[in-house]
Every structure is written in C-alpha cells, then in structure tokens.
Write a structure and sequence with these properties.
Strand content: 5-15%
CATH topology: Butyryl-CoA Dehydrogenase, subunit A, domain 3
Order of helices and strands: HEEEEHHEH
Radius of gyration: 20 Å
GO molecular function, one term: structural molecule activity
Largest sheet: 5 strands, antiparallel
Shape: elongated
Family: Belongs to the claudin family.
CATH class: Mainly Alpha
Distance between the termini: 9 Å
Number of strands: 5
InterPro entries: Claudin (IPR006187), Claudin16 (IPR003927), Claudin_CS (IPR017974), PMP22/EMP/MP20/Claudin (IPR004031)
Number of domains: 1
Strand order of the largest sheet: 4-3-2-1-5
Protein name: Claudin
Function: Claudins function as major constituents of the tight junction complexes that regulate the permeability of epithelia.
Length: 188
C-alpha cells in the first residue's frame, strides 16, 4: 500500500510541477474578454504581453522593461511566489525520487527513506501554498481591477479575465498540495 501511495504521489507531483513551471513561463495570465467582434486576442503574462491577430494568426509579443524596472505589485509578487513554488516543487520532486521504495538509494535503511518522503511532502506543501497564493493573488487583482472599472462606469472597450496560465498555476498548486497530503498523512 505504501509503495502505491508513493508512486501515486510521485506521478501527481511530477504533473503538478510541470503545470507550475508552465504557468510561470507562459504569458497568458490575463486575457481580453470583450464580447464584441475581436480582431485580435491579447494576453498579459508575468514576463510579456502578446497580441495575436485573429485573421492571419500572427503573434507579436512585447517584453516588459528590465526585471529591475518598476512593475505593478501583482506582477512582482506573482513572479516571486511562482518562482519560489517552482524551486520548492523541484526540490521536493528530487527528494521524493530518492525516497521512493523502488529506488535502490539507501535501500538498507527504510526509516531514512520514509523520512525523505515525509520531508518531500512538507517541502511540497510549502511550495504549493506559495504557488496558490501567487495564482490567487493575481486572479483577485484582475477581478478587482475589472470591478473598479465597472463600478466607476469606465468602459475602455476591453476587459480582462483569467487566462489559462493562471488556471494552470492554480491546478499545479492544488495538485502539489494533494500530493503533499498523500505523502505526509497517508504514508505509514
């Protein structure tokens, strides 16, 4: 039973870590959600803003200024939290690989291997909480920005919704949290 839980947690951790990495690297955290006929599709991300022409499919991206330049707080905080979540999830994945029963590393001491799995679960839980805070922070800020424009009757011709990168970040963080629960609570 323990080996099955370890392998399940490993698979979920691997998939969730990939989701977190994709969410951090991709550029569609916020998309335009205008109901009129669109000639372009605009995505804003943590690192750049891209516009895709709907008629010919040409995509152009504008990089944000230097990483040392002034950026909105939501971008800086989300970048920081997502990078930390990526690093912690990667560390937890490496620790979990070494702690799996099917790996021959430290095979003579199963107590150490079990502690490595518990440690991977704790590290993964910390990373998942950071990733979830970063993703939800960005999503709430997008919602508040849109609500402020609506409440002040300001219509700029376009409003934004959560993009697929934001959803990937939330899914990856949730998957990492579930894997950490499997590793810390269900392994005996």
């Amino acid at each position: 039973m323990s080996a099955a839980l370890q392998v399940t947690a490993f698979g979920l951790t691997l998939l969730s870590t990939l989701f977190l990495l994709l969410a951090t690297c991709t550029d569609c955290w916020m998309v335009n959600a205008d109901d009129s006929l669109e000639v372009s599709h605009k995505c804003r991300g943590l690192w750049r803003e891209c516009v895709t022409n709907m008629q010919d499919g040409v995509r152009t991206c504008d990089q944000y200024d230097s990483i040392l330049a002034d950026h909105p707080v939501k971008i800086v905080v989300t970048r920081t939290l997502m990078i930390m979540a990526d690093l912690l999830a990667g560390l937890a994945l490496a620790t979990l690989v070494l702690g799996l029963d099917c790996i021959t590393f430290l095979k003579e001491d199963p107590c150490v291997k079990l502690k490595m799995c518990y440690g991977a679960g704790v590290i993964l839980c910390t990373g998942s909480i950071l990733g979830l805070i970063g993703s939800v922070w960005y999503a709430v800020d997008v919602y508040v920005e849109r609500a402020m424009l609506v409440s002040h009757n300001i219509f700029l011709g376009v409003h934004y919704d959560f993009g697929w990168s934001c959803w990937l970040g939330m899914a990856g963080s949730t998957g990492c949290f579930v894997a950490s629960v499997l590793l810390t609570c269900c392994l005996y």
